[in-house]
UniProtKB/TrEMBL annotation:
Keywords: Cell membrane, Membrane, Transmembrane, Transmembrane helix, Transport. It comes from the Archaea. This is Lactate permease. It comes from Haloplanus aerogenes. Signal peptide: none annotated.
Length: 569
């Protein structure tokens, strides 16, 4: 393989890294440039015709539209519940169980954050949970640090499985070498990715046992008056119980139902079981733990928003956690209960699934005369469920026109920056993916995979999750990380004779790890608590859980692939 081929193949990824990391460009500016670089690499380096470049770009846009439909619906429902005060009601329902900040972190960050990730994804948990913690009196910087950490196990599955469904299924179906190899194993792509989901969940269940404890320990060590993890050790039984309550249904859901529901169902069951145990008097520490008086906090802990502030119509949260609340918890939870029911029905009841997959499906066969085809299943994609529940929430929560307008305005403001970034990110990857099919040679990602396999050899699987983390760090999205590097990871596994399914499970976990330090997520989380400018400080904190998770995942990847399960495809 010529060195020039490798140099040309890496150019689009190098452009993303340089512009977003070196120049701090937002994805909305960097991704269109990367797309132009990919066009140049495809045309001059791979001799792709303009027709194939155009077809790959259109196919990428269609895939991105599917992601954006899900994102739009999920965030619309999220901001609907913020406008009605449902989130403050849910938050205070948990906070009223205990005044202990450690218990509140387990409930709100690990469990509630995982639920929001499973329902909405795309960086929303930290942007929602952070302000809720500040409303309860947490230092804003502490709120952001723990909020970014807590929902890591759910990130792999994102908003109802989007990272794996869009990031792997839709991509792999367009890669002949992968779809053919999977078919030779007697599987289809959808079934195989469901197996990848189980492996990813297995990594998380093992490594994530320490996750709730890490969130609490980071709070007590860096923001507690004692500057020690000793207070975190006092709630270790609670953190392990919450992990088990989440992990068992989480893994079982991945195994029996696939990649759409693990985070959602795991969090719902975990919340029910853990809250029930706490209400029954179990796992409460002997003494409540709290932060020092605010007068003792360093200036950089607090920005424009003071702890204790809340802005919903139904709840006023005082700094001591006291509230005046008018929305009941069952009413507040009703929309997400409807989401869970509708998602299960539309995926499990065959007549309903068939109807949704057969109506209002926008298709483009043989795009520009090539072998590429794309489709947009308007009703079957989870975006339709979210929008439907938003419409039902209007009468359920008695929303007025101003609140409806506000929810839509906030949603559009949140989603708009993602449109350009996702359209061109996926188009860039499609050009790289289709460069081989268009010319009858090894494509750009295959060339890069071969090179990486030659350099790292048999130890590469240890670093597979870090490659996934790099993708999420660069693009700010687990889904885009899977799109960027899923085919690459498959190619490396092929070259070194390592189980493809296990290495892609590590990739899916890596995409979640990278979200800890994804600049977009960090900026968004800081912005909603009035602390923009503290990005570097937050990222340094988040390197601690990142190092733990990546090291443990890497070691498990080697153990699974070489020792315990070498026969897996």
């Amino acid at each position: 393989m010529a060195a020039i081929d490798v140099a040309i193949a890496v150019l689009p990824l190098a452009a993303i890294a340089y512009l977003m990391v070196g120049r701090f460009w937002p994805a909305t500016r960097a991704m269109p440039v990367a797309w132009i670089v990919a066009i140049g690499a495809g045309y001059f380096g791979w001799n792709m015709s303009p027709t194939w470049i155009g077809a790959a770009t259109i196919n990428g846009f269609i895939t991105a539209a599917s992601i954006l439909w899900i994102v739009f619906g999920a965030i619309l429902l999220l901001y609907t519940l913020k406008r009605t005060g449902a989130f403050d009601a849910i938050n205070q329902g948990f906070a009223s169980i205990s005044d202990d900040r450690r218990v509140q972190v387990v409930l709100l960050v690990f469990l509630m954050g995982s639920f929001i990730e499973g329902a909405a994804g795309f960086g929303t948990p930290a942007a929602i949970v952070g302000p809720l913690l500040v409303g309860l009196g947490f230092p804003p910087l502490a709120a952001v640090v723990v909020a970014l950490t807590g929902n890591l196990m759910a990130i792999t599955f994102g908003a109802v499985g989007t990272p794996l469904i869009i990031g792997m299924i839709d991509i792999f179906e367009d890669v002949d070498v992968i779809s053919s190899a999977v078919a030779a194993q007697g599987m289809n792509i959808e079934g195989w990715v469901a197996e990848i989901a189980v492996w990813a969940a297995s990594f998380h269940v093992i490594v994530g046992a320490a996750l709730p404890f890490i969130g609490v320990a980071m709070m007590t060590r860096f923001f507690g008056e004692e500057r020690s993890i000793k207070p975190a050790l006092e709630v270790l039984p609670l953190t392990l119980f919450a992990w088990a309550s989440f992990a068992v249904p989480y893994w079982a859901t991945a195994y029996f139902l696939g990649p759409e529901f693990p985070g959602l169902i795991g969090a719902m069951v975990g919340l029910f079981v853990t809250v029930g145990a706490l209400k029954a008097g179990f796992f409460h520490p002997d003494e409540d733990w709290d932060f020092a008086d605010q007068s003792a906090w360093p200036d950089h802990w607090v920005g424009d928003i003071q702890p204790g502030e809340s802005s919903s119509r139904d709840t006023h949260v005082a700094a001591d956690g006291g509230t005046v609340q008018t929305m009941s918890l069952p009413r507040a939870w009703t929309p997400y209960a409807l989401v869970a029911v509708l998602l299960v029905v539309t995926r499990v009841v065959d007549p309903v699934t068939t109807f949704l997959q057969s109506n209002l499906v926008l298709q483009w066969q043989s795009i520009l005369g090539t072998s590429l085809s794309g489709s947009f299943a308007t009703l079957y994609l989870p975006g339709a469920v979210f929008v439907a529940v938003h419409l039902l929430t209007i009468p359920i929560h008695g929303m007025d026109a101003k609140e409806i307008k506000g929810a839509w305005a906030e949603t559009i403001e949140k989603v708009t920056p993602a449109v350009i970034a996702l359209l061109f990110a996926v188009a860039t990857v499609q050009i790289m993916l289709q460069s081989g099919t268009a010319t009858g040679t090894d494509g750009m990602l295959i060339v890069l995979s071969d090179t990486m396999a030659g350099v790292a050899g048999g130890v590469y699987p240890f670093f597979a999750s870090l490659v996934g983390a790099l993708g999420a760090f660069l693009a700010g999205s687990n889904t885009v990380s899977d799109i960027l590097f899923g085919t690459f990871q498959y190619g490396v596994a092929d070259q070194i004779g390592f189980p493809h399914t296990i290495i892609l499970g590590a990739q899916a976990v890596g995409g979640a790890i990278g979200n800890l330090i994804a600049v977009h997520n960090v900026v968004a989380a800081l912005a909603v608590v009035g602390l923009v400018g503290q990005e570097g400080r937050v990222i340094r904190y988040e390197l601690i859980p990142l190092a733990y998770y990546a090291t443990m995942t890497g070691a498990l990847t080697l153990l699974f692939g070489y020792v315990l399960f070498p026969g897996v495809f």
